[in-house]
Write a structure and sequence with these properties.
By secondary structure, this protein is mainly α. The protein folds into 2 domains: about 5-60, Arc Repressor Mutant, subunit A (Orthogonal Bundle); about 65-190. It is about 80% helix and about 0% strand. It is built from 12 helices and no strands. Helix 7 crosses helix 8 (about 110-130) and helix 10 (about 165-180) crosses helix 11.
Length: about 220
């Protein structure tokens, strides 16, 4: 066995051991000694590849997202159009489904945000390249893309839990919302116009005035 395969097999053994222990305990309660016992290696070998248990968790999630990272790199290199962002969302959905047992453990331990943050880190440079020709200032573009990515990961997380519509429908809905704006789509499909918007604006302005008054007091 060559060194490359040997290293990969060792890392895979550590990942398998981690997920076994993660089923029973939080990251904070998993010791390196216990992990090494389950994986069949000594502590010295563990520290060759990882700094600590939390670092191993990050590497496990990184491995889950590796196919998305590879595809994202391809899209970034060819300068894919904005419509192609749906491909990355579809890959993310597939990743959640394929690794559903691990994803549910992350949810159970309130650490799904780590997966979402890594996914956004992969997606961010691709989106910046896709919208590099925009006339918006760089600072505006940053916030707009953060807004969209936050919406994407939250929608996908909810869909993963419910799966009440098809994968094709949720991808199409996400792309439509991203390209046309959810607010615009909802407004365009309202049964009849009302003056509720003006009323709400008046109420909000009144609340703001009252808050400002209390602050001054």
């Amino acid at each position: 066995m060559d060194r490359y395969n040997s290293v990969n097999n060792t890392k895979n053994d550590f990942r398998i051991a981690f997920w076994k222990l993660y089923k029973r305990n939080s990251v904070e309660k998993i010791s390196v000694s216990e992990l090494c016992r389950v994986a069949g290696y000594n502590r010295t070998t563990f520290y060759v590849y990882y700094d600590n248990i939390h670092d191993l968790l990050l590497r496990c999630i990184e491995e889950m997202l590796r196919p998305i990272k590879e595809h994202a790199d391809e899209l970034q290199q060819v300068g894919a159009p904005p419509e192609d962002r749906g491909k990355l969302a579809q890959l993310y959905l597939e990743t959640l489904k394929i690794n559903s047992d691990y994803v549910r453990l992350l949810i159970e331990h309130h650490q799904l945000y780590i997966l979402e943050d890594q996914y956004k880190a992969i997606l961010r440079p691709v989106l910046l390249k896709m919208f590099s020709d925009t006339e918006y200032p760089k600072e505006f573009l940053h916030y707009m893309l953060e807004y969209q990515m936050a919406a994407d990961v939250n929608v996908i997380a909810q869909w993963f839990e419910k799966q009440d519509i098809s994968e094709e429908d949720i991808i199409k809905l996400m792309v439509d919302c991203a390209m046309n704006g959810a607010g615009n789509m909802l407004t365009a499909n309202r049964a009849a116009p009302t003056d509720a918007g003006q009323h709400d604006e008046a109420v909000i302005q009144q609340i703001i005035k009252e808050m400002a008054s209390q602050k001054n007091d």
